[in-house]
């Protein structure tokens, strides 16, 4: 009983090998046949069919290239700028400066109506207080410095 099973297995193995060999031959031969047959039915190689193709004259392509955006000047995209330091500071006002060994400043957010007491080196919102003077303070925002005065409207 074991004898016929091994014989059948061998036949299936040989048949699978023949099918695989045929598939490899078809993969190698088929690309040279696709699109290269003439109406008479005989096959040409891809190189021969390329040589027989008629191309348009160069003038036909010049207008396409001349109107293509590749040859025009580059346009830089305009990036909208964010609010400036002056715009961001409009919502704050200095209510007073407390003089002493370490001076403090009273800063009020006009929108929320909250007041903070801060000293040099501390931050409020996105700003850092650099220096507190007698009638003004220096603040920094993203590397830019601006001086704020006690009296309103004198920024």
Key features of this structure:
single chain; 155 residues; alpha+beta; SH3 type barrels; 2 domains; four-stranded antiparallel β-sheet; three-stranded antiparallel β-sheet; elongated
Q: Are there runs of 5+ residues with pLDDT below 50, and where?
A: none
The radius of gyration over CA amounts to 42 Å
Helix and strand content put the structural class at: alpha+beta
Question: What count of helical segments does DSSP give?
Answer: 4
Question: What percentage of the residues does DSSP assign to strands (E)?
Answer: 25-35%
The share of residues in helices is: 25-40%
Order of helices and strands: HHHHEEEEEEE
Q: If you had to describe this structure to a student in words, what would you say it looks like?
A:
- With 155 residues, this protein is α+β, with helices and mostly antiparallel strands.
- It has 4 helices and 7 strands; from the N terminus they run ααααβββββββ.
- The longest helix is centred in the N-terminal third of the chain and has 32 residues, at 2-33.
- A hairpin with a 2-residue loop joins strand 6 (136-141) and strand 7 (144-149).
- It has a 4-stranded antiparallel β-sheet with strand order 4-5-6-7, with no helix packed on it. Strands 1-2-3 form a 3-stranded antiparallel β-sheet, with no helix packed on it.
- It has helices at 2-33, 46-52, 58-66, 85-89; strands spanning 92-98, 104-109, 114-119, 123-124, 127-132, 136-141, 144-149.
- It folds into 2 domains: 2-71, no CATH class; 85-149, SH3 type barrels, CATH 2.30.30.
């Amino acid at each position: 009983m074991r004898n016929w099973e091994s014989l059948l297995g061998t036949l299936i193995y040989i048949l699978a090998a023949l099918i695989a060999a045929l598939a490899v031959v078809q993969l190698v031969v088929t690309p040279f046949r696709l699109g290269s047959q003439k109406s008479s039915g005989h096959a040409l190689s891809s190189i021969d069919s390329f040589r027989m193709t008629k191309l348009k004259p160069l003038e036909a392509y010049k207008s396409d290239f001349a109107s293509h955006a590749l040859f025009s000047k580059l346009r830089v995209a305009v990036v909208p700028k964010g609010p400036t330091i002056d715009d961001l500071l409009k919502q704050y006002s200095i209510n007073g400066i407390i003089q002493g060994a370490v001076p403090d400043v009273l800063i009020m957010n006009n929108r929320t109506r909250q007041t903070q007491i801060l000293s040099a080196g501390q931050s409020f919102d996105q700003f850092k207080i650099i220096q507190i003077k007698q009638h003004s303070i220096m603040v920094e925002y993203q590397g830019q410095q601006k001086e704020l005065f006690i009296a309103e409207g004198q920024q």
